[in-house]
Each structure stands twice: as C-alpha cells, then as structure tokens.
Amino acid sequence: MNLIFNLHRLIKASALVLATGLAFNGWADTAVQEEQTPKAPAAEINSQSPVAQDTGHGEQPKGKLPLDELRAFTEVMERIKKAYVEEVDDRTLLENAIQGMLSGLDPHSAYLKPDDFKELEENTSGEFGGLGIEVGMEDGFIKVVSPIDDTPASKAGIQAGDLIIKLDDVSVKGMSLGESVDKMRGKAGTPIKLTIVREGVEKPLEIALERAVIRVQSVRARHLEPGYGYIRVSQFQADTGHELVDTLKELKQAQKDSKLNGLVLDLRNNPGGVLQAAVGVTDAFISEGLIVYTKGRIPNSELRFSASVDDPSEGVPLVVLINGGSASASEIVAGALQDHKRAVLMGTESFGKGSVQTVLPLSVDAAKGLKLTTALYYTPNGRSIQAEGIKPDILVQRAKVTPIDAPQQYKEADLQRHLSNGNKDDVSNSKKARASKAEKEAAELLAEDYQLNQALNVLKGMHINTITAVKPEEKKTAALKPMKTTP
C-alpha cells in the first residue's frame, strides 16, 4: 500500500483531510486522493441569477438564492464601508465574509490562504514550529485536544481537556481560533505564558513555556518485560505505517529465540494525522476485511480501505490504549481493531472526531482553497465515530499506584552455606548491567502509568489463556483415540 504523501499534489487536487481542529502548530490531519478533481467554475451572482423570496417557513425552492438575505448582505457591506471607524476595502470585507461563511458550518471547515497550505505541508512532514499541542474551541476558549509527545506543551504538563483562557495575560474570549493560534506562534526560543482552567483544580494555572521547532518522532518502541513489547504512536505522519512495520520487526528480532507474547499499542493523546497512515497501521495487525469507509454527498467522498493479506504482527496478542486525547485517525485504528476483534481496547472514551474534510483549491486562485467537511467515516461494522467516540472494552481511568513499603524478606539464597541449584549462568556482568538498567526503566514506567500497567496484566492473562487452552481438534482426537487395555 502506497503511503507516500505529496502535499504539492494536494494543492492542485482534492485531498481528504481528517482535522481535529486547528492546532497551535497549524497542523491538520491529511490524506491524499489519487483522483484528479475538476475545478468548479467560479460562482457568479448577477441580475440573471435565480433568486427567491423566503417563504417564512425556512424553505426555499431548490436552486434559488434567498433575495432578502442577499439584500441584507449587500446592505451590511455598504454600511460597514461608510460608517465603520476605519476605512475597509472591498477585498478585505469579502475575504472576511468567506471566512465567516466557512467557520459558521462546523469547527473543521475553513478558508485556506496560501500560508495555510504551507503550514499543512510542514506539519504533515513531522517538523514544525510551535508549542506542540492540538486544540479546538469550546465556549469561546481554547480547549486542548492533545499535547504531542516530547514537545514544550507535554513537558510543561498541559493535559487533554485543559481550557486555555489567557495568552500572556490577554483573554482569548472574543478571539477566533485562528487569531489565538497566530498569537501562540512565534520564533523558537521565545517565551509565552498560558493561563489554563483544569477540571478538579480550583484556581487557574499559569504555565510558562518556550516556543520551539517541533520534530515529532511518530513511532517509538521498547520492551516492558521479556516477551512483552510496547509501541507508542504519537501522531500519524506520512511514513508512520512503514515505521510501525519496521518497529514490529525490531521488537521480534530482539526476542532472539523466543517470540513476542503480547504487545501494547499506545494511541493515547494522539490527535490523528494522515489517513493512509492510519490504514497502514491497522493493516499491520489484520490480514483481511474492511478497515474504514467514508460516506458523503459528492462522488469522490465515497472511499473504502481494506487490509492486505500480509500480517506483520503474526497475530500477537494486542492491547490498544486510548483516551479523550485520541482523535480522528487514532479512532479509525482503534475502531477497526475493535470491530475485527483483533485487540482489547483499554483506557477511556476517545475524542469523537469522525468527519472528513476535503481540501478544494479555488479556480480563481489555486494558492487559496477551502477545507470543507464533505463526509463522515465509519468503522468496518458501520459505526460512526462523529461526536460519539470509541468506547474501550475495559474502562481504566488515569490513576497513581503507590506501593506499600514491605519489610525485607529473606529467602533460601540469603542463608549461609545454602546449596547451589546447579544452574549455569552464562550471562556476562556487562549484559546483566544493561538488562537490569532496561528492566529498571520499564519498571519505573509501569509504576507511573497505571493504564499501561493494567494493559500489561491483561496481555499476560491473554498469553496464559493461549498456552493453556486446548484446541477443539486436540479434544476430538483425544476422544477418538482407542484406550489401551491390559489383558
């Protein structure tokens, strides 16, 4: 499956976009369609255009423009030009009208200026400037969808669900999302202060950050315990599918003679990304069937993606971690694996962003375009994720586990003159040291992350169930085998 992303083609052709809202870094979920979409002719309104008087019942004849609303628009524009405190040219007023038209539809539709296309190209490549956070709007304030791993936002402790109410002591109330985002952008190394409101915390929190160039490593992996691996996908970039397959191979090779007994796929606080990358990640764990499909009004919004016959995971038991910061492409992966009964989903309910945006260039200026919601995407079983989210199979809230200090226990090996067990120890001291260091780091991670700890326990139970279960064929063979008798 070709997952190579070319944004220059996106500017010239329609592109599917799964956007979880504008980000501090301007990044948006993006996927490319191979089909060329013909440009629509520019709309014209003149004396010959069909218009209709509103009936007063919220209905109008199909293909007719509402005359009263058109008159109101021209009157408002004319009054602004004459009476506004500062002079405003027609171009600015019309561009503002276009922006308002798109922003009034839903949180993800938008008018794209040339700079927006440039930011889209930078951010889907995995390197961009900003704070490293995905956001949307709620009640006039900025709501954090998800902080991105290893960025100023995540290091400062910003959490999914936080509401940002001030930027450098200036209230964001009344600002558009774009204006707020622009205020938070800036040169790498420059400071900014965020005032946030967090659920469960009485007073607003003031968090000082320093802007940085964000380089996101999409896929990271480690071993939790011998035989149990962990893969973290922080964002779906153009090559994430390929990276995940390579990471799976590395984890399996590291086991040497043994094989992986289980794997945790961590999609928590993953705001989404490239659609083909989500398909590629899912395809790495299943070998047949539908992964995701979309439904909309225009023909090229009807898409279906299915799995290839290869299964790089080789059926390893799988637990997927999700939470309220898992959005869009993350929900595609989680929903598909859940529908195929390929994984156990753990954590909390996901964000619920299931709409598809198409980037359409304008025929009058190819450097500008619309990011327009054109479809909804569905899981293999036909579930719409929009405003619903993916519910985990096992609900596990965030928590802290504090071990109880237990008195030191003595074992047989602590007794003087204890007998040797005769087992040979072929592991060198240096290998022991490296192993103990890795084990210590994994133990610290599991102690801090309760959800991950529980995921590992579930994997162990799945592995035990696999090795102890008797296959039906074996039971049948045992039943038919003649008993040996002694004459």
What features would you describe in this structure?
The termini are far apart. About 30% of the residues lie in helices and about 25% in strands. The radius of gyration is 28 Å and the shape is globular. The model is unreliable at about 1-50 and about 485 (pLDDT under 50). The chain is α+β, with helices and mostly antiparallel strands and about 475 residues long. Helix 7 (about 240-255) runs parallel beside helix 8 (about 275-285) and helix 8 (about 275-285) packs parallel to helix 9 (about 330-340). Strand 21 (about 355-360) and strand 22 (about 365-380) form a beta hairpin. It is built from 12 helices and 23 strands.
What is the approximate shape?
globular
Number of strands: 23
Radius of gyration: 28 Å
Whole-Å distance between the termini?
A: 65 Å
Please tell me the overall pLDDT: 80
- SS strand fraction: 15-25%
Sequence stretches where pLDDT stays below 50 over 5 or more residues: 1-49, 483-487
Largest sheet: 7 strands, antiparallel
Percent helix: 25-40%
Number of helices: 12
The computed structural class is alpha+beta
Record the SSE blueprint.
Blueprint: H1 7-12, E1 15-17, E2 31-32, E3 51-52, E4 65-66, H2 67-83, H3 90-103, E5 110-112, H4 114-124, E6 127-130, E7 133-138, E8 141-147, H5 152-155, E9 163-167, E10 170-171, H6 177-184, E11 191-197, E12 205-210, E13 212-215, E14 219-225, E15 228-233, H7 240-254, E16 262-266, H8 275-283, E17 290-296, E18 304-306, E19 318-322, H9 329-339, E20 344-347, E21 355-362, E22 365-378, E23 394-395, H10 429-448, H11 450-468, H12 472-480
Parallel strand pairs: 3-4, 15-16, 16-19, 19-20, 20-23
Antiparallel strand pairs: 1-2, 1-21, 5-22, 6-13, 7-8, 8-9, 9-10, 9-11, 11-12, 14-15, 17-18, 17-22, 21-22
Helix pairs in contact: 7-8, 8-9
